[in-house]
Design goal:
Distance between the termini: 4 Å
Number of strands: 11
Helix content: 25-40%
Shape: globular
Keywords: Glutamine amidotransferase, Transferase
Strand order of the largest sheet: 2-1-3-4-11-10-9-6-7
CATH class: Alpha Beta
Number of helices: 7
Structural class: alpha/beta
Protein name: Glutamine amidotransferase
CATH architecture: 3-Layer(aba) Sandwich
GO molecular function: transferase activity
GO cellular component, one term: cytosol
Radius of gyration: 16 Å
Length: about 240
């Protein structure tokens, strides 16, 4: 089959490699079936979307809604490159799944409002599917309500006019939406397991997601959580869009 692409922006190898393995394992993909481009370290090469089954954007320490003057040259380049790719993805309705940072990028691209109104602390949150979510070919594989891991400083405050709301939550009303038939974004992390979020808690201890001294307490809390639903979304994405 044609491989999927993971567009990654994490500079820390432990978090970056863990993210790659999490998406690969959840999708049941072999290493050659998930190609990774680490955009924080080098520019996105010229790629032909027809060479791939679909695109995935993972999470990031970047925030799409940060004032331009505070963004690094790397972030500005990354967002310019991903914006150009989204031009093609949305126009051609190419399979796309953006997680966390991905919803900020897609929401901004589609003229929604991304800001810090609905930021959520690191940990589990309860998510509910909308009627459109229940009818969606990907989200319909999940239970109507489920828990997932989150941890973000920005979120979609105003849904893009073209977007279909698929999932919501009490602490963040826009947890997932779709543009067209095949372009998806989630605020929650569908790839994260307990082990995965513990790795990120350790790696991003000093990145402002929580008080550094609270790390051990936070790890103890997430160790008590059972998360099983969200990875099914990645499996459904792969099953639906794998092109052989």
């Amino acid at each position: 089959m044609k491989p999927f692409v993971l567009l990654a922006t994490r500079a820390e190898d432990e978090a970056a490699d863990g993210e790659y393995e999490a998406f690969r394992e959840a999708g049941g993909l072999r290493p050659n079936e998930l190609v990774r481009f680490r955009l924080e370290s080098e520019p996105l090469p010229a790629i032909d979307p027809d060479d791939y089954s679909g695109f995935i954007v993972g999470g990031s320490p970047f925030n799409a809604s940060d004032p331009v003057e505070t963004k690094s040259e790397t972030q500005i380049r990354v967002e310019r490159e991903l914006g150009a790719l989204l031009d093609v993805v949305v126009e051609r309705d190419i399979p796309f799944l953006g997680a966390c940072y991905g919803i900020g990028l897609l929401g901004t691209h589609q003229y929604g409002v991304i800001d810090d109104t609905w930021a959520e602390p690191v940990g589990p949150t309860r998510i509910s599917l909308t009627p459109d979510g229940l009818a969606d070919p990907l989200f319909g594989t999940l239970d109507e309500t489920f828990d997932a891991f989150v941890g973000h400083k920005e979120a979609c405050a105003v849904l893009p006019s073209r977007a279909v709301l698929l999932a919501s939550g009490a602490s963040c009303p826009v947890q997932a939406f779709r543009i067209g038939r095949n372009v998806y974004a989630t605020q929650f992390h569908p790839e994260l397991t307990v082990a995965g979020i513990i790795t990120r808690i350790r790696v991003y201890r000093h990145h402002g997601y929580f008080e550094p001294d609270a790390m051990d307490e936070l790890i103890t809390a997430v160790e008590q959580v059972a998360i099983s639903q969200p990875t099914r979304l990645i499996a459904a994405f792969v099953d639906r869009y794998a092109r052989r």
